[in-house]
Amino acid sequence: MIERIWTGHRALIIAVSVVAIVAIVATGFAAVVNSSGAAAQATASATLTAGALASQSGAPTSGISTPLASPSATLEGSPTPMPSGWAYSDLDGVAAPSALAHRLPIAIMVDDNIVARPQSGISSASIVYQAPADGGEDRYMMIFQEGTATDIGPVRSARPYFVYWAAEYKAGFGHFGGDVTSLQQVIPSMARYIYNMDDLGGDSCPYHRITTRPAPHNAYTNTAALLSCAAKINQPSTYQGLPDRTFVDAAPAAERPTSASISIAYHTGTVSYQYQPASDSYLRSVDGALQIDPANNQQVVASDVIVLYQALSYDSVSDPGHNRPILATVGSGRAIVFKDGTAISATWKKPSNTALTRLYDSSGKEIPLVRGEIFIQSVAIGTAVTYK
Predict the structure, then answer these.
(1) Of 71, 14, 63, 81, nearest in space to 42 by CA
(2) Alpha carbon of 208 to those of 176, 199, 204, 234: distances in Å?
(3) Which domains does the chain have, with CATH numbers?
(4) What is the pLDDT of residues 337-357, one digit of tens each?
C-alpha cells in the first residue's frame, strides 16, 4: 500500500504493509522514500503529542481542539492505520498531526513572470492553482495547510477568480494589492469567506523584500510568519469545517501504468508532468526543466493534476489603461482529472462564488482524489492539453 504522510514541510511517500505500519507506531521509525525515489529515514514517534509536533513546525497550538478524523477506506478495502493524534488533512487528504491537518488554510498569490522563477514554497502547498493573468502571463495561488515552507514567493497581486477560489476554503488570503475590481468589489464582498492579508492594504506583517531579485518580483513570506501574523489580527487558527473533497489511497502497484505524461500550454511556458509508477506521483516540469523548489531544494511532485477548461475574456473598461482577465469559474465545464497514471474525462461544477469546485465523471459520480499535493490548471477553452 502507498501512504502519503506529513514529514515537517510536506508529505513524503511511504510504501509499507499494514503490519509494518503497526511496527512504525510501536518503534517510532519508518523507512520512507523521498521525491526522487531514494531511501531515507524518518522518525514518527507515537509518544509525541500533536501539539508538540505542531510546535516543532512553527505552528501555533493554542485553541486547536479539532478531533481526529476517522480513518477512511483504502482502495484495497481496509482502513488506513494512523498514529495517535494524527488525522487526514482537510485540503489534500494527507495524514498529519491533527493540529496541522485541521489548521486554517492560507492562500498566497504568487508570480509566474520568467524573472520570478523558480518560485519558492510550491512543493509544500496542499493545493496549487495556475491560471491566466494579465499581459499574456499566468499566475499561481498556493494554498498551505499542513505543509510548512521557509520561503513563499514572489508574492503578487490579487485577481477576482483567485479570490473566489480562496473563498472555497475560507482561507487566509495573502497578496500585494490587486486590480480595481478585486480591491473595491470582490474582496469586500467576500469578507465573510476569506481572511484578507494585503501588504499594500496595511497588513504588511508577514511580508518582506529580498535583494536578489528586482521589484516587484521580490516580495516573500513564509508559513511561520503568516500564522503568527494571522493570530495577531485575531484570524481563526483552524479550518472552518467547510465541505471538502473525497480522498483515497494510491492505486495498487499492479493497476498503475508504466508511464504517462501531460503537457499544458500557457503563453509564458509549457507545464508538463511525468508519471512515476513506483510512487504513484507526477514529476512537474516547466519548459522542459524539472521544477525544483528553492525553499527546500525538493522536486515539485503532484499526486493529482486537474485541468479546468474555463471561458476567458478581457475587461478594458473597469480599470482604465489595463486589459484585465475575466475567468468564468462559476457554472460548469469540461475538465480532465489525472491520477494514478490515468486520465478521466470529467465535468467541473461550481454553483456559486463560494461553493467548492467539484469534479464528476461521465456517470455523474464525484471523482475521489489521491492523497497528496493537488495541482489545478485552469486554461482557456481551446487550450492545447496533450497526454498519453
Answers:
(1) 14
(2) 11, 10, 8, 21
(3) 2-101 (no CATH), 102-388 (3.50.90.10)
(4) 999 999 999 999 999 999 999
